[in-house]
Specification:
- The longest helix is centred in the C-terminal third of the chain and has 33 residues.
- The protein starts with a helix and ends with a helix.
- The protein is globular, with a radius of gyration of 19 Å.
- Helix 2 crosses helix 3 and helix 3 packs across helix 5.
- The chain has 160 residues and is an all-alpha fold.
Length: 160
């Protein structure tokens, strides 16, 4: 039992460290000037050009698509990390409280992310980006919530 508590504390500590590191990564990207951010997106787009052509999509839609998907994926991972941290905090029991807290904290992070961009040369804040970030975060949170429910159910049936 004591070993399990130690394991839960370690997992919780790692989850919170993951949240901090990933939030730093998101905000660091927001501090990039527009030209540098666009260049980074174009590098990713170069890799995806052939995929877009294969799908029959015009390459011209790729730049905006890559940027919006990057927003969504960044925050989906943040949502996963927050939900893991909050679920492990309450001894592995999932709850709607953890979902609400994780989503709220991700929304706050998204709002701060867009606020940071107001002060960066060539960048601006967009409400649509906050909503895209929030949607990605909610997907990440719900994935962990559902998987935790599956794990709890499996653990209960095995203990019988």
């Amino acid at each position: 039992m004591k070993q399990m508590q130690h394991y839960n504390k370690l997992w919780n500590w790692l989850a919170y460290c993951g949240v901090a590191i990933w939030t730093f990564f998101i905000w660091r990207n927001s501090l990039m000037p527009a030209s540098q951010s666009a260049a980074q997106s174009l590098q990713v787009l170069d890799v995806l050009d052939s995929l877009l052509e294969w799908m029959g999509l015009p390459v011209s839609i790729g730049h905006g698509l890559v940027r919006k998907l990057a927003h969504m994926l960044e925050f989906a991972l943040l949502g996963v990390l927050w939900e893991l941290a909050l679920v492990t905090r309450v001894r592995g029991h999932r709850s709607w409280y953890s979902v609400q807290c994780a989503c709220s904290l991700c929304l706050l992070t998204a709002m701060m992310d867009e606020t940071i961009q107001v002060f960066v040369p060539g960048r601006g804040s967009q409400v649509t980006d906050v909503w895209i970030d929030f949607a990605g975060a909610c997907v990440g949170v719900l994935v962990v919530f559902v998987l935790a429910g599956y794990w709890e159910k499996k653990r209960r049936t095995e203990s019988r």
